[in-house]
């Protein structure tokens, strides 16, 4: 009888949860057996179900920790980006129209939400004195064209691409031998402020950073982290995670209006130093207030459960998109007709930028891609809750082939040793004894085969790798 009841409980169709599903499925057994005996059998079967579920979650938790070990940047990855920034500063000062401009990183690198092969966003800030001023699109295009010619003349940069027609014109390129994609814009102050805000939000709950890295890799693996193909950009994915944390029970993040009540881009006026200090002081005060609230329940949710509930929350995103706006500013699904600024737009999906309202950060998502986006959420959710998981199948589901090749064939002895709460920037830069995985990657060079674009590994000596940076997969994260 235990085996029969266990089969019912473990069947996805025959059992809809112990509290609500057993009556209909087990009613015939109750008529034919002693109720006490049946209840004992139910208890044993439920224990089997719980043990199977716990084992599956444990495998997922360990695998997520291992993924984080792989994708987290090493000290050399940070140094490579600083090298690019410093070299670009030299080029900028050589361009007559850019003399006196500063070169400032923003995006995932500045907010510490980048992976080992993440791209690098850079703003060239023009010397406008003390005051904040905007740069017209035509002048921006001219200045980026000047920079493009200077980079071409030096021969150290490849894959140069000038995207002049974009909402924010950008110049894309890579530094030879470093394989890091760079996007350069002009006077992108709003991008710099948004990056700082994401960095400050991470101070509330360090698990936010882990989720961002994991979700980016998962979305890239499923082809839904590519704005050029009509899916999510990485900034929108970060906003979805903020919204998920706001709507968890208990909430892990507050509505962002409680961190900064106004529209931040509207306050970027006047003296730049004063405006930035005012925004920082307001955010710092409100973040400290939220963190020090003794009545707030602390985050004790395992990373695996946060990831699974994230997938479940947005599995029906294609259905809700026609009527609702995802609004991190209020921390709620908002009815799209409740705000005329939303209703006037005809987007496939609306994720309001909480720092630049009512701009839609998901404006590049195309309607024909929404079904594929929902299917990615649904399919992965089914796999993760199925219980039929192992390390290999989870890695295949959660990261792409260009990343999975970096995993050792056997699991780490202690993958759970990865700390979610330890500040990642300081751990990566100052750790005196890198982990076994980091040591493995530092001693590995990845070469691209000229014929089939496949990647092969080979170990190199310590003296040789000092002179050559390991090539990274081509990712736009």
TrEMBL record:
Gene Ontology molecular-function annotations: RNA uridylyltransferase activity
Transmembrane annotation, as ranges: none
Domain Poly(A) RNA polymerase mitochondrial-like central palm: 64-199
InterPro entries hit by this protein: MTPAP-like_central, NT_sf
GO biological process: RNA 3'-end processing
PANTHER family, A to Z: POLY A POLYMERASE CID PAP -RELATED, PROTEIN HESO1
Name this protein carries in UniProt: Poly(A) RNA polymerase mitochondrial-like central palm domain-containing protein
Species annotation: Camellia sinensis (Tea plant)
Upper lineage: Eukaryota, Viridiplantae, Streptophyta, Embryophyta, Tracheophyta
């Amino acid at each position: 009888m235990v085996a029969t009841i266990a089969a019912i409980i473990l069947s996805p169709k025959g059992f809809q949860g112990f509290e609500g599903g057993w009556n209909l499925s087990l009613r015939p057994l109750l008529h034919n057996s002693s109720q006490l005996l049946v209840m004992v059998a139910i208890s044993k079967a439920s224990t089997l179900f719980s043990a199977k579920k716990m084992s599956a979650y444990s495998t997922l938790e360990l695998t997520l920790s291992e993924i984080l070990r792989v994708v987290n940047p090493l000290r050399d990855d940070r140094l490579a980006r600083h090298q690019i920034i410093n070299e670009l500063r030299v080029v900028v000062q050589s361009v007559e129209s850019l003399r006196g401009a500063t070169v400032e990183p923003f995006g995932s690198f500045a907010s510490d939400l980048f992976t080992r092969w993440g791209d690098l966003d850079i703003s060239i800030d023009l010397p406008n004195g003390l005051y904040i001023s905007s740069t017209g699109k035509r002048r921006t295009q001219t200045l980026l064209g000047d920079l493009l010619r200077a980079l071409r003349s030096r021969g150290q940069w490849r894959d140069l691409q000038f995207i002049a027609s974009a909402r924010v014109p950008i110049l894309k390129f890579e530094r030879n031998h470093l394989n890091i994609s760079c996007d350069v814009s002009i006077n992108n102050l709003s991008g710099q402020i948004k990056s700082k805000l994401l960095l400050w939000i991470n101070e509330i709950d360090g698990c936010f950073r882990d989720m961002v890295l994991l979700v980016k890799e998962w979305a890239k693996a499923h082809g839904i982290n590519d704005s050029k193909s009509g899916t999510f950009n990485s900034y929108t994915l970060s906003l979805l995670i903020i919204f998920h944390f706001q709507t968890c029970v208990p909430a892990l993040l507050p509505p962002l209006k409680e961190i900064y009540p106004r529209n931040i881009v509207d306050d970027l006026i006047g003296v730049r130093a004063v405006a930035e200090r005012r925004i920082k002081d307001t955010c710092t005060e409100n973040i400290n207030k939220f963190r020090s609230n003794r009545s707030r329940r602390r985050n004790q949710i395992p990373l695996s459960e946060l990831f699974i509930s994230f997938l479940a929350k947005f599995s029906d995103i294609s259905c809700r998109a026609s009527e609702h706006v995802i609004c991190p500013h209020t921390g709620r699904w908002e009815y799209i007709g409740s705000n005329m600024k939303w209703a006037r737009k005809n987007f496939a999906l609306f994720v309001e930028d909480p720092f630049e309202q009512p701009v839609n950060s998901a404006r590049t998502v195309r309607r024909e891609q929404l079904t594929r986006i929902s299917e990615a959420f649904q399919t992965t959710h089914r796999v993760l809750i199925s219980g039929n998981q192992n390390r290999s199948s989870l890695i295949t589901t959660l990261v792409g082939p260009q990343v999975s090749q970096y995993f050792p064939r056997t699991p780490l002895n202690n993958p759970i040793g990865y700390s979610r709460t330890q500040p990642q920037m300081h751990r990566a830069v100052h750790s005196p004894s890198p982990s076994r995985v980091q040591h493995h990657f530092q001693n590995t060079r990845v070469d691209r085969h000229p014929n089939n674009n496949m990647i092969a590994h080979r170990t190199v000596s310590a003296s040789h790798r000092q002179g050559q940076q390991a090539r990274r997969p081509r990712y736009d994260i």
